[in-house]
Design brief:
With 190 residues, this protein is α+β, with helices and mostly antiparallel strands. Helix content is 17%, strand content 36%. The longest helix is centred in the N-terminal third of the chain and has 19 residues.
Amino acid sequence: MFGTVNSNRKPMTLLTKDVIEVIEQCYARVKLLGSEQRTFFQSLDIEAWTLISSWGQVYSGLSSKRCLVAGFINGTGEKIQVKSTMLVEGGSPCYAIPSKEYDQEEDILDPGGAIILFGWGAVPSLAQAGRVFMTIETSAFLCALSDRKSTAKTTFATAFDGFEVGFLEKSFDENEWWAKYWLLVRKTQI
């Protein structure tokens, strides 16, 4: 299911060229999604890809910037606290785009919920490559994700005791302009 829309290269018609507005529009659509919906996973994947595709239209040519989209799904049956999301390397804040099962005041993702995280790099130059590197820490796992295929030392997901975390998708642009990840967090089976 995840990654099936990545090859969908149909040109999109953007109503805006403002990146914050693109993120806000995605946020508004994802906030309406809930795990009880039949097309929940498909809709999440489409929204993640729409961010990447829109990004490519907003920042192209000499102003191109790399981007990274990472999403995770709470399949644990209990609440997960999102402790921190951060771009260690990049040119933006780390934007959180949650489904309706997310409590923003407590940073809690309820069972079945999902959250998409988005960030981008600076315009590449002779002095810097404009890379993107994101870390995510929750009460269930810790992970580090890069905008390019890399070794297990730089891109990893480690579950804490009682949990397991696995990648549903690791997709990369062949020219290293974007990366898209989906992770599933579950309770450890005894």
